[in-house]
Structure formats: structure tokens, C-alpha cells
Amino acid sequence: MEKDPYRYFRIEAREILDVLSRGILELETSAGAPGVPLDVQPLLRASHTLKGAAGVVGHERIAKLAHRLEELLAARLGPGAETAAPTAEALLAIVDEIAMELSKLVAPATTMAAPAPGPTPSGSPSAPAESVRLDLLDVDAVLASVGDVSVRLASAHLRASGLGRLETLVRNVERWLDETRGVASHSPVQWDAGAEMIEHLRGELRAEREALGELLEGAARRAQDALDDARRLRLIPAETLFAELARAVRDAATGAGLRVELETSGGSIRLDAHVLGLLRDGLLQLVRNAIAHAIEPAPERRRAGKPDAGRIFVRFELHGPRARVTCRDDGRGLDLPGMRRALVERGGVSAADVERMDVNELVGAVMRRGVTTRASATELAGRGVGLQLVRSVIDRLRGEVEVRTEAGVGTEIQLDVPVSITAAPALVVEAGDVTATIPLDAVTRTVRGNASDVTASPAGDILSDGGEALPFASLARALGRSPQVEGEPASLTAVLLDAGGARAAVSVDRIVLVSSDVVLPLPAAAVADPVVVGASVDAEGHARLALDPRVLVERVSLLPGAPRRAVAEEKKAILVVDDSLTSRMLERSILEAAGYDVTTASSGEEGLELARQRPFALFVVDVEMPGISGFEFVARTRADAILSNVPAMLVTSRSAPEDRRRGHEVGARAYIVKGELAQDELLDSVRRLIG
């Protein structure tokens, strides 16, 4: 690997930039406060240290900038110096220049993480949190080395059992001596000497085995302690984010013409570097959103009895193996009516459905669909990507989000995430020739079943779980591996997964155990399936693939994955429109088994779009769906010059006479109640309409 001359300088410089950014913001905040001394000495020392460090590594540009910063800070010393001293803007501008120069010092053969979408706060390098306080390459090397020691000790434990086998051999020899005692060719004295020697050897082996066992147990305990220490090296104090958050609040508030103060707590809470790096992106977006959408201008705040300056609170708390991060503001609260309007205008969801959503459901929908309540875009907001980014962070961390808001009082958003994603409990399974781990928090349960529980269809297999139809595949197939057992087994072991609300089931050959192995990232040069996020090593030195449950669920849901082949001309095409996955799959299975070419749609809007893309012989439509109902779907197709000749059949749970009457009035050629739905009845109606 190419030598990196700036390896330690980058780490030190980033720490100093954090100190400078935080200190300059504190100077700006306290400049007008009576009786508050302006202590610039810590900032002078920091800039002087940075100048010296830059000189040591030969970076002349950073050294000159640090010297200029030192001169400007020195201008604040002495009586009455504040009036002629440079503004915080001027000081922060130099910090920005230094940060820009520092960002150019990329380590050799290293690919830096992409910066988060949206404006990056000036004055803080855009490097991920992994390099704020330590070099993770060194930490990962420690983890790998200690892990290897642990593996070797575990292997030595297994080899120690060989001493037990030797002891068994000694017993066998002793037994042979007893059986052959008295044979004429051996004197009693020889037998007694041999037996005494065997007894002595057996005692020595027993003592040696016990001593070795004690030694190995002690070494294994020490290795585990070292491994735990190495894991903790990856944990970084949450306060490393505070300077960047403060700068983001200051810049966003200045741009919006507002006064906003940031309060932080829980900075001593330590989180895994990967977790902290992702949280950084989410928190930056949350504080910007609070300023763009929630904090009121000073006159409006005064009328509401609030102080002129808005306040944002960021708090870190520890709850066992998980961290709770709270971002709260004292602004006007979420614009819930505006969010509902924006969702309806975006399409795909009806006004009635939106009105039924509670706050968390509403915010979740906004996060997924990327809508905005702003009429026009600004530098801070208006494009609908902010909350999408927060949702992406939560998804990648397999976390949860909870929202509370009160009009005129403020909004609180809580993010619940794991402290570490490198040593979280995981289910160890075997599938084909692969041993893999699945994060335990994504496993809802495991079940034993029969092959007959799986319903096959060309779109993919379905496993029924308590009435819910789950996309299903063997884990070996999802990983592109061959199963160990050829053919279809009579029974199966399935792992039911839930990744951010998306569910699926995978069958495995064997469930091994629950483990908390250290998951190390794959080398940068390794070409891996996207479902594989890393690897760990078991006690015997065998590799275990660490799987991403979200990618795995998506993979299973899309299998067989290849584009559908063009159907034979003799097959008649049917479009099934139903928002219920179970109903869609059941109807599809029945119709495809009868030889029809079936396409499915999960909403009336999607159904109309598909109906106009290719010819169909029949529409099979549910009535109660978000957005366009089945009645409206049939009415629209009847009014369409091209689609009016395609018969439509309503399949619904609504059995009232008035519903049947309305179905026929809008033009449906058949009306079947789901509760009465039988395979023969459905096929008889289809054959009557299209043959």
C-alpha cells in the first residue's frame, strides 16, 4: 500500500477544525452578552497548533491559512479590541478554506464516502464520522488480529481434545495387557512393569490435559476481553457531531434571516462510527428542516409569547444496546394539513386514506414519497428530499422513528438506532454450501412447515403466515447457490423477515445458533453480491457471510427476477387489479393454472396505466381500493373508446344488493363476492366471458 504522509495530520486537523468552529460560534454568541469575557486564548492555541502541524507535513497552504487565522484572533486581544476585531463570518471563512484544503488530502488507495445530499456545513470537513477521532483502518486491523487469535485459541481447544483420545488409547493398551496377562512368552515382572508405565503415562496425560485446558480457558477469556476492547475503539462520542450541527444551525438560520440557538446533551454517549456517520446526515437534515419549516420569525414568536430566538434541542440517550436520538424544536409544529394535501396531490393515495393517518403514519408516507409543503424551492427546502434522506438513514440502520408535534408548541422527532451494527446479535443459518448471519432484529420468527404450504406461481412462490401471503424462496436460491438437497423436500425450515415493514420468508437447510460475531466490512477490491454486507469468522475459522435483510427481502420479492417471457399468442391476457397481495396472488394462481396470461396491478391507477399499454381480454377488479375504486375503474374503461370492448368482472368482499346493482350499472359483466369465491366459480365466469 502506498505510504500516506498525511495520515495522522488529517485526524489531528479535523479535531482542531471542530474546536475552532465551536469556539468561533461561541464567541459570536457571547459577543453581546454583558459581563461575559471573550476568551480567545484556546482558539489561538488551536490555530497555532494547526499551523505547526501543517508545517511539519509540508502543507504550506494550510500553514498560511492557520497563520492568518491566528493573526485575526490575536486582534481580539487587548482592551477595546472587539470593535475592530474581525467578524465571525471572516473567521469561519478561513476555517472553510482550511476544511476545503483538508478535504483534498485523500488517503492513497482509499475511496472516500460520498457527502450527504444537500448543502454541507462550511467549516467542517465532509469526511464521514469514521475519521473524526481515529483511523478505522487501524481499528479494523486490531479487530482482525484479535479475532484471529480468538479463532486460533478456539481451534487449540479442539486440538486439546486429542489428548483425551490419547488417554483412551492408553486405556485400550491397558485393557490389552490385562487380557494377555499370563501368556507364556511374557513374565509377570514384564507385565507389572508395563502396567506401571501405562498408569504413569495416563496420569501424565491427564495432568497435562487439565493444565492445557485451564491455560486455554484463561487465554480465551483474555482474548475475548481484548476483542471487546477493540470493539469499543470503534465507538465515538456523540459530541463529535455537535460542532458541525451548531455550524449547520448557524448557517441555515442566517440564510433564513432567523435567530436560532442549538442546545445539545448526551455528548458522552458513544456509538459505532458507521452509526454516527449515518446519524450525522439525518440530524443535519432534521435541524435544517426545523429552521426551514418550523422556527417562526421573531415578530411572530413575540406574538406567541416566545423568545425571539428559536431553539433546537438535540439529545443522545442510551437504552441498552440501542441509542435514542431526539431532535426537538419550539417552532410552530408540523403543517399536517399541508402534508395531507401534498400527499393527495402527489397521487396514489386518496384524501380519505390520508385523513385516517395518524401523525407517524403521515410523516412516514411523506418520508417514503418525498413530498414537500413548500410552494417553491429554496436553498434549504422545497424539493421533498429532506425527509426521504432521514428515512434512508433509519432504513440503513434498521432503526425506528417516532414523531410528536403540537401546533404552536413545537415538534419532537425521536430516532431509535443500534449503538453498533458491527457486533449485533444475528441468527446463524446454513443454506447450500453457505453459512450466513441475518440480524436478529429483522427476524420475526422461525417456522417449520411442509412444502405444500408454499403456493407456486410464475411470479414467485408464496408462503402463507397467519393469512398473510409472504414472498418466499430458499436462501440458497436467493444467494445464487445450489441447495444441499436435490429436489423438493417434504418439509422446510423458514425464517420470517421484516425489514422496515417489507416482509418475506426464506427457507434454510439448518438454523445453527444466535451469535454476536464481529462483522467486518469486505475489502474494497472484493466483488460481492449486494445482499452481502460483510463477513465474520466462527470459532473454527470458517467464514460467515453477513446479509443485509432489506436487500434480501427485496431480492426474494422480485424472484424469479428475469424479465417475463412473451406469452404465447393462444393465451388470453387478463388484468387483475386488487390492492390485497393475498387476493392478487390467489386469483393469479387460479387463472394461470387454467392457462391464462395474468398481469397484476395493486391500484386502480396502476391498472388503468397497464390497461392502456397492452391488449387484455378481461379485467378482474376489486371494489375497495385506495384512490380509484373498482366501480370507477369499470366506469372509466367503459367510457374509453379503446377499452370499452374489454369485459370487466368485479371480485369484492361487498355483498350488499345495492353494491351488486351499482356494479352492473357501471358496466361490470360479473360480480363475485370474495367470501363466496371458489376456484370453479371464478373460472366458470371467466370462461363465460372470454372462453
Helix and strand layout, with pairings?
Elements: H1 7-30, H2 41-57, H3 60-74, H4 88-103, H5 136-180, H6 188-233, E1 235-237, H7 242-256, E2 260-265, E3 270-272, H8 273-294, H9 298-303, E4 310-319, E5 322-329, H10 336-346, H11 351-356, H12 359-369, H13 386-396, E6 400-406, E7 410-418, E8 426-431, E9 434-439, E10 443-450, E11 454-455, E12 461-465, E13 468-474, H14 475-478, E14 491-499, E15 502-508, E16 510-515, E17 532-537, E18 543-547, H15 549-558, E19 573-577, H16 581-593, E20 597-601, H17 604-611, E21 618-621, H18 630-639, E22 648-652, H19 657-666, E23 670-673, H20 679-690
Parallel strand pairs: 2-4, 9-18, 13-15, 19-20, 19-21, 21-22, 22-23
Antiparallel strand pairs: 1-3, 4-5, 5-7, 6-7, 8-9, 8-16, 10-14, 11-12, 12-13, 14-15, 17-18
Helix pairs in contact: 1-2, 1-4, 1-7, 2-3, 3-4, 5-6, 7-8, 8-13, 10-12, 12-13, 17-18
Describe what this molecule looks like in 3D.
The protein is an alpha/beta fold. It is built from 20 helices and 23 strands. Strand 12 (461-465) and strand 13 form a beta hairpin. It is flat, with a radius of gyration of 34 Å.
